[in-house]
Design goal:
Length: about 240
């Protein structure tokens, strides 16, 4: 399998949790659906279409769990004031009427940095690789929201080779369903494994399907008995 390998980083990031209400917590890593949106921005696909158009897509991601902090943001809808019956040439419009003004807390990731492997269908794969390599994206990539501009660094083209079912030390974020984590080795090596439930796929009607994932806090490899591992650049990964 041909794979595009690149680094995704930025100063801040925010990936809103699906179950968020008034407060706005963030996933510690980009969900698969957000990464499809990022790929779509690079290719120039219109909003909300990449999650459908790019399937089937194979995506793997690794990285340390970023530091997180909370800020307060003011969210409001600003509408123009009503116009006077008589309008003069020098008169200027106003948006002094403020509606639905709210102050909400939002969780941001600090200095997020991830390595990502992507394999797309033949329709998009070569173009995507060329755009990453030459930094020629249609829309500015971001880390969750447009205010958090992302930097993308080309790391190369690679080949992912499937591995036989066995105990493998997986460097990437690990879907729970892909195998059985060897907890005896986890305790022996004192690994700090976190579990998070994130969106994986979305339908045309915006219905999300979630999966549970494991990742190690310091990005140490996780021992797992699986038949879904791939070898790539002296690392072992599992696609999201």
């Amino acid at each position: 399998m041909d794979v595009v390998h690149f680094r995704l980083s930025g100063k801040f990031g925010h990936f809103l949790k699906a179950e968020a209400n008034r407060d706005m917590p963030s996933y510690p890593i980009p969900p698969r659906t957000s990464l499809l949106g990022l790929i779509g921005a690079i290719l120039g696909l219109s909003k909300d279409t990449p999650q459908i158009e790019l399937e089937p897509a194979f995506i793997a991601i690794k990285g340390k769990s970023p530091d997180r902090f909370w800020i307060q943001n003011k969210f409001h809808q600003s509408l123009p004031s009503q116009l006077n019956y008589k309008i003069t040439k020098s008169q200027k419009g106003s948006n002094s009427e403020m509606k639905n003004q709210k102050i909400l807390t939002q969780e941001w990731l600090f200095n997020p940095e991830f390595e990502i492997w992507v394999s797309l269908t033949s329709k998009y794969h070569s173009e995507f690789a060329e755009r990453i390599k030459n930094r020629k994206w249609h829309f500015q990539p971001c880390l969750g929201i447009s205010e958090h501009i992302a930097d993308i660094e080309w790391l190369g083209n690679s080949t992912a080779k499937p591995l036989n079912e066995d105990i493998h030390f997986i460097h990437s974020v690990l879907p729970k369903e892909c195998g059985k984590v060897k907890m005896d080795i986890v305790f022996e090596k004192q690994l700090a494994i976190h579990s998070v439930r994130m969106p994986a796929v979305v339908s045309k009607n915006r219905v999300f399907k979630h999966k549970e994932y494991y990742f190690e806090r310091e990005c140490k490899p996780i021992p797992v008995f699986t038949k879904k591992a791939f070898s790539i650049e002296n690392q072992k990964i599992v696609f999201l």
